[in-house]
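name: query_chain
kind: protein
chains: 1
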Amino acid sequence: MSEDQAKQSKEAWFTLSGDVNSDMVHRVFEAVGHMTEDGIATAHVLVQSNGGYVSDGLCLYNFMSKSPIEFVMYNGGAVASIAVIMYLAGTRRFASETARFMVHKSHATASPGSRPDALNIIVEGLRADDARTESILRKHIELTPEQWAIHQYSDLHLNSRDAKAARMINEIADFAPPRGAILRNI
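structure:
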């Protein structure tokens, strides 16, 4: 096998947990830089996150889905809110039998005494965020009309079987690095 072929088939195993925020964006940018330097072709990533900031999740989705690294994503516990959008950057996606997903519309809290023009800006921002995240959801998953209706007004919870039926995951399977593999935290 040539050196180029060896680099192309190189896999690595990672964990990524916490809030989706600017710190996570920085950690992922830095990790992907190291992955490309190390010749990693496929990164298996166990995600554990209850969500965070929409703009940071969208940035991670856009960056990871266009990265030269193939991301294989795993949910071993909970992937929720904007973390689901980041998770969908994976070309292959898996979840443990006991894992769950949750998606919902954007929300914000206005300052007490906010004027109508300030409230209108918040509402328009939320609508823009919802349009962006829903387009990504519709690109990757197939919810039933009943599930879309729940998503419209409430939190939609999916267990691993629901996620497989919606094509959010390829298979129900655990994150299981092979013996001897180096496991790195992003």
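note: The first helix runs from residue 3 to 8.
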